[in-house]
């Protein structure tokens, strides 16, 4: 809800690395199940064993444009797929394992193929970050990069928590900002339902 959407990719050579075998031995499958400290430690391990790493980011203004213009843009899922395609292209991959965020993985694959514009083998599945070490690794790198961006934003805006809609501290920050400024901060995704609800609550307050 606050901060950038971050996509990461790891070079396919990672599959043959000691790091990948370590991931499988440790049962690492989902970055969301790890603490920030554990993610940071694993990110350092991935970077040492990598066969290439790529990132793409979308800040709130771009995210809002895709979400609010869904009928024309294809919405957030298409944006994520195009960002993934950008990373895949930069890494020069001819095979990519991708976590499909769309409820329809075939549609998501179509968005990816649109962004790639060439012949790249795609393994595109739901919860791929729980199945394939290479996707788990990319997910961890993306989370760590986002964590770093959030810490940078806190230096300017104060401590707003994790930036996720499930965080009471983030919601409290958003409501306080709306009361003080009348609109959401530029670091927030204004198209998010939580932001709309917080704004409506402010308007309804006596």
Architecture overview:
The protein has two domains: 5-153, Nucleotidyltransferase, domain 5 (2-Layer Sandwich), CATH 3.30.420.10; 158-204, Arc Repressor Mutant, subunit A. It is built from ten helices and four strands. Strands 1-2 form a two-stranded antiparallel sheet. Strands 3-4 form a two-stranded parallel ribbon. The chain is mainly α and 206 residues long. Helix 1 packs across helix 8 (133-157), helix 2 (36-49) crosses helix 8 and helix 5 (75-91) packs across helix 6. Strand 3, helix 6 (105-116) and strand 4 form a beta-alpha-beta unit. It has helices spanning 18-26, 36-49, 60-68, 70-73, 75-91, 105-116, 128-131, 133-157, 168-181, 193-204; strands spanning 5-10, 53-58, 95-99, 121-125.
Number of domains: 2
User: What's the mean pLDDT score?
Assistant: 87
Element order: H for helix, E for strand: EHHEHHHEHEHHHH
Low-confidence stretches: none
Q: Provide the helix percentage.
A: 55-70%
CATH architecture name of the largest domain: 2-Layer Sandwich
Radius of gyration: 18 Å
CATH class of the largest domain: Alpha Beta
Q: In what order do the strands lie side by side in the largest sheet?
A: 1-2
Provide the CATH topology of the largest domain.
Answer: Nucleotidyltransferase, domain 5
- Number of DSSP helical runs: 10
Name of the CATH homologous superfamily of the largest domain: Ribonuclease H-like superfamily/Ribonuclease H
Structural shape: globular
Beta-strand portion reads 5-15%
From the N-terminal CA to the C-terminal CA, the straight-line distance is 26 Å
Number of strands: 4
Largest sheet entry: 2 strands, antiparallel
């Amino acid at each position: 809800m606050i901060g950038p959407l971050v996509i990461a990719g790891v070079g396919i050579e990672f599959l043959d690395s000691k790091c990948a075998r370590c991931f499988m031995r440790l049962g690492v499958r989902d970055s969301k199940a790890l603490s920030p400290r554990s993610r940071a430690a694993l990110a350092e391990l991935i970077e040492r064993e990598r066969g290439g790493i790529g990132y793409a980011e979308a800040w709130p203004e771009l995210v809002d444009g895709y979400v609010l213009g869904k009928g024309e843009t294809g919405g957030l899922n298409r944006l994520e797929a195009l960002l993934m395609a950008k990373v895949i292209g930069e890494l020069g991959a001819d095979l990519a394992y991708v976590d499909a965020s769309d409820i329809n993985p075939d549609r998501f694959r179509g968005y990816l193929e649109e962004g790639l514009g060439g012949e790249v083998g795609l393994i595109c599945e739901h919860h791929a970050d729980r199945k394939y070490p290479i996707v788990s690794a990319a997910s961890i790198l993306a989370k760590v990069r986002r964590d770093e961006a959030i810490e940078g934003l806190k230096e300017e805006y104060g401590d707003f928590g994790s930036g996720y809609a499930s965080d009471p501290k983030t919601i409290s920050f958003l409501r306080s900002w709306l009361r003080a400024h009348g609109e959401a901060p530029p670091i927030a995704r204004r198209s998010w339902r939580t932001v709309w609800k917080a704004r409506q609550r402010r308007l309804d307050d006596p």
